[in-house]
């Protein structure tokens, strides 16, 4: 018995040592895995930075020349394919994914970049070109520096509700594009005008060597080729008309569940004749008393009489098979909504161009809208043909939905456009200095960071720089 016990003792010691070693091994393995994880994370970020620098060089040409490249530091497009139901509101797509999903999105960016390379003979856009000295109210100057958005200059934006809404809706989009980016955004500075008519014409000598980001440009005014087009403010939200654009698309898709045949077999339009009166009155005259017409004048904000009777919501337009698009003071924000409705858009020849209008096709196998005469003289003929040939109308509506609602007109596509603009602009424009020299009370010049952050500007009521005085509505006693 004792011999047996003596024989087992070493085995018992061995088991005890193994049991004691086991936790140590687990701890060592955990530490090794943790170190490996940190190394992989650091390596991925380094590779992302290298990829970004490589892409910056590769993007020195037009964005059309950008070749998607999958690397360890970027989200691979291998196995990834655009899915509208899943991705329409995904604001975090990489440059590779954006170019894979929206290859025809960047036409206006390419056009502007090519224009300015030729205009400046290869030199870069400088601070003098984005200066808003030619402009009255409605202008912003912004800077993106180290992934932070700053407002360095603004005039006449926060005192007028509509302009405040427009500027904020635009800045929100830019800020979202920065925050959601999986790749670094370059340091850039630029100016934006949020007015309908931005005073950028051949009659303004001061604008001859200037450039600005704006919502539209007049195709008949050559100087507006100097403009860089951006998504307008109601891609974010349309005050008093519609909530967020993403939510509008959700409602439009829900209304389309019953299919094409469930829609009303009529042409719908609501609007005022206070803007572009000759054009809009011609529409009303040509559609008057027609069986296919649900066209009515509705004065903005009116709640009396016929105006109240005929008032409908923006999603209500999606219940029709046909809808008219008319320009207003300049471009009209209405079109983006109609193109998300799975209906046939009927429009006159457009004078104003936006960042997506190159995708409109009024003939051919990919036709996605119907173009009528500028005075709507052939509207009856066109509508009678559409009503008599419902399959033709459905094909046009299908093409429009596929091109705009489910692809280039999605919120995700707009964010891709913004980010590509940041990158392309950085190749043709100067890199900003975030500091300015300020002479202090001691007579010495001190460095001061320019502008204010986006976050501060969102609750700001004055111009930037602040020029308010005691007694002004927006006067502040704090810095």
Give structural attributes.
Rossmann fold, disordered N terminus, alpha/beta, 479 residues, 39% helix, 15% strand, 4-stranded antiparallel beta sheet
What amount of the residues lies in strands? 5-15%
* Main sheet record: 5 strands, parallel
Number of helices: 14
List the strand order in the largest sheet. 10-9-11-12-14
The coarse silhouette is globular
Secondary-structure class: alpha/beta
* CATH class value of one domain: Alpha Beta
Distance between the termini: 90 Å
Overall CATH architecture of one domain: 3-Layer(aba) Sandwich
Radius of gyration in whole Å, from Cα?
Answer: 29 Å
Q: Into which percent range does the helicity of residues fall?
A: 25-40%
Count all strands and give the number.
17
Question: Can you tell me the CATH superfamily of one domain?
Answer: Glycogen Phosphorylase B
- On the 0 to 100 scale, the average pLDDT is 83
Q: What do we call the CATH topology of one domain?
A: Rossmann fold
Low-confidence stretches: 1-21, 33-75, 475-479
Structural write-up:
This protein is α/β, with parallel strands linked by helices and 479 residues long. The chain has a domain at 251-414: 3-Layer(aba) Sandwich (Rossmann fold). It is 39% helix and 15% strand. It is built from 14 helices and 17 strands. It has helices at 2-58, 84-87, 95-101, 107-119, 127-130, 161-179, 245-255, 277-287, 305-310, 334-338, 379-388, 390-408, 411-428, 454-457; strands spanning 139-145, 148-155, 188-193, 213-214, 217-218, 228-229, 237-238, 242-244, 264-271, 293-297, 320-325, 344-347, 352-353, 370-371, 435-439, 445-449, 452-453. The strands form six sheets. A five-stranded parallel β-sheet has the order 10-9-11-12-14. The longest helix is centred in the first third of the chain and has 57 residues, at 2-58. The chain is globular and about 80 Å long. The protein starts with a helix and ends in a 22-residue tail after the last helix. Mean pLDDT is 83; it is low at 1-21, 33-75 and 475-479.
